[in-house]
Every structure is written in structure tokens, then in C-alpha cells.
Amino acid sequence: MHTALTNATFFTGSEIISDRALLISGGRIKGFADPSALPPDVMTIDCKGFLVAPGHIDLQIAGGGGYLFSANTSPEALEAISAAILNSGTTGFLLALPTNTHEVISSAFKTIRENPHPALMGLHLEGPYISYTKRGAHVKELIRRPTASELTTLLKEADGVIKMMTVAPEVCTPEIINILRDHGVTVAAGHSNATFREATDGFIWGIEAATHLFNAMSPMHHRDPGLPGAVFSSDKACASIIADGIHVDFTVLAMAKKIMKERLFLISDAVEENDHGAYQHVRQYDRYTLPDGTLSGSRLTLHTAVTNCVTHAGISAEEALRMASFYPAQLIKATDRGLISSGARADLIVMNNDLELKGIFINEKMTITN
Q1: Which residues are part of the catalytic machinery?
Q2: Do 255 and 168 have their domain in common?
Q3: Number of domains in the chain
Q4: DSSP assignment, residue 187?
Q5: 242: how many CB neighbours lie within 10 A of its CB?
Q6: Does residue 90 contact residue 132 with C-beta atoms inside 8 Å?
Q7: 255 with 359, same domain?
Q8: What pLDDT score was predicted for residue 27?
């Protein structure tokens, strides 16, 4: 049985295609076909003239659906979080787990491994090998320098669940970076007070990205450009950015995009309201804060980040969509996500001309959002 999406304009990640039908089978894209010559047993879905694009991929989101994962690593919480994230148009995501106890981290490994979800791609471990100075909301008592033996034991227990890890390059050696990369982990620099030289060395050693550019990192100063300057100077390092206008001003977002081009991608870094455990977040009108008022996370969805890029930073719709799908997928080597091409996963979103989300297609099912 094939499914065909018809009456749509398709953005593949590289081009716009119209007057064609998109054939899907077994959750994978088969290709485009003439709408008037579809197989007789095909099930058609009328997309009502809307735009169809690859689903969003969020490499850093900590909760949703009423649950913060670090405060509740149960299967029930994971199911609610996954459903909420998927309903926002994000069809692939890494759950972010901040610096924590071994018990919480171990429980997270077990829950993710034993409860697969089509949108859940793994864990983004943020810490504990970060800067005490730039820890942000992270628990200071649990921050430490890595050792090869501890890290190897952790990765063995994770058994492939960790897909990305944020570390401070100034507390890591080349050996630590190599161990992570040898286990298929994408390494990002963040929560770091690195100098320009230390950050540049980290990129030379194999760090591939920076986590939430400008936030929780050494500032860009004319006497020491710090981690942001090292990112800008690199010709390979990528960086995630939180496009809510709060964590980073939209003018700075536009400037970073002009400098970094396709190396800049979007994350939500969204958290969820939580009043217990190590990470307590208070819901405000447009953000989350610690109980003392310190900014602690966003209320952003990745789809809102896309529209913010278009509306407030002068980025084209096509490029903003790539920043939320193709670029993050490529960074973590998920080559079958973030694009519409033969063999890719059929994880898709449907939007109107104003980029308002109208539907989500995943697992051979279309969900209408509004």
C-alpha cells in the first residue's frame, strides 16, 4: 500500500516542487509522481494547496506536555513529552539532560532505550564536564572534569543512547574528545568560559558545534573573542541558536546568520514548568526562569523559531526551514532526515502561506493541528 500526498507545494530542502504527488511507503519517501497516473491501490491525502516540508529536528529540548525529563524519567513522562513535541511540528528530537546525578542519568538511559518513539532520536547530555563559571542553571556540586575511565564507563552504560554531548573545551583533553567521537557522539562546546585559543583548539581536536550561541559562554570581546569568536572564525564549526528574541536579540541572530550561513541552526532549548528536584523552572509570559528570576529556558517551539527568523531576522522561509531540519540532521549524521528525497523518512509538516502549521505526517499518519 502506497500513500500519496497530493494538491501541495513541496519544499524538499533544496528546491520547490509543485504539480506533483509525493509517494510514500513503509514510512519512507519513494519519490514524486504524476498526480493523474498514481497506482490504483494508492491512498491519497489532499493537502489543500498547502506547503509540505521536512519535519523539524530539535537537538536540544528538555521537556514538554507538563513534564521536565530530568525531574521525571519515567516512561509515562517520556510519552507525554514526545507527544507534545511532535504536535508542535518537531518530528525528530534529542532530549536534553543537564548535569545530574548518576541515578538520574542511568534512569534516562533505561527509559529511552526501552521506550522507542519515532520522533525520539536519543539524548543530548549537557554536562557534567562544563565550566563552573558559565554553568548557568546547572547544579554546581555535580560539575567536574572528565577522566577517560569515567567517560568510557558512562558511554558503555549508555549503549548508544547519547547522540550529542555539550562540554567545555577548556576542561577536556584531545583524548576525551576522541573517546566521544569514537562512540558516535557529536561533541559541542558550551557552558564554557574558553578563551579564543582554547575554543579553537577544541574545534581542531574534533568538537563540531557550539551549544546555544552567545548563551552560557565566554563573551565576544575585542581583546579575546572567546568561544563566539572561535565559532565565527572556523570554517567548519556549527552552532545552535535560540531564536526567541530573549536569549539572543534578533539583530544579533541576523548578524550571526550572515557570518555563519549554513553553519547556524535552530534549537528550542525549551524546558517545562517544574517545582521539584534539581531543576526548578517557573513559567513566565515568554520564558522560564529559576525561582530567583534568572533566565533558565525558553518557551519556544522550533516552528516559532522558524517564523521568528523570517519575521524578525530577514531570513528566507526556505533557509529558516533548513535551519530547523536539514542542518541539524546533517550535524548528527541523521542523513535520512531533514529532507524530502527517495529513501528518506517520511516525517513531514504541512503549512499555509504564512507558515502556520496545519498538519504533521509521520508513521504513515496525517495529524491535523488546527
Answers
A1: 269
A2: yes
A3: 2
A4: E
A5: 24
A6: no
A7: no
A8: 93
DSSP lists the bridge partners of residue 98 as 126
Residue 153 reports pLDDT greater than 80: yes
Mean pLDDT on 123-146: 93
How far is the CA of 302 from the CAs of 93, 112, 268, 298, in angstroms? 10, 22, 5, 11
324-365 pLDDT, tens per residue? 999 999 999 999 999 999 999 999 999 999 999 999 999 888
User: Which residues are bridge partners to 348 per DSSP?
Assistant: 54, 361
Same domain, 44 and 60: no
C-alpha cell at 183: 562512540
pLDDT of residue 18: 95
DSSP string, 264-315: EEEE--B---B-SSS--BEE-SSEEE-TTS-EEEE---HHHHHHHHHHHH--
Strands 9-11 and 51-54: parallel
Does the structure show a pLDDT above 80 at 1? Answer: no
**Residues with Cβ < 8 Å from 27, sequence gap 6 or more?**
118, 345, 346, 363, 364
User: Does residue 19 contact residue 12 with C-beta atoms inside 8 Å?
Assistant: no
43 and 132 fall within a common domain: no
Q: What is the pLDDT of residues 207-221, one digit of tens each?
A: 999 999 999 999 999
Task: Tell which residue, 134, 65, 136, 140, has the closest CA to residue 292.
Answer: 136
Q: Which domain holds residue 37?
A: 3-53+338-368
The residue among 69, 71, 89 whose CA lies nearest residue 80 is 69
Amino acid identity, residue 341?
A: S
Q: How confident is the model at residue 240 (pLDDT cuts 50, 70, 90)?
A: very high
Please tell me the distance from the alpha carbon of residue 258 to that of residue 264, in angstroms, as a whole number: 9
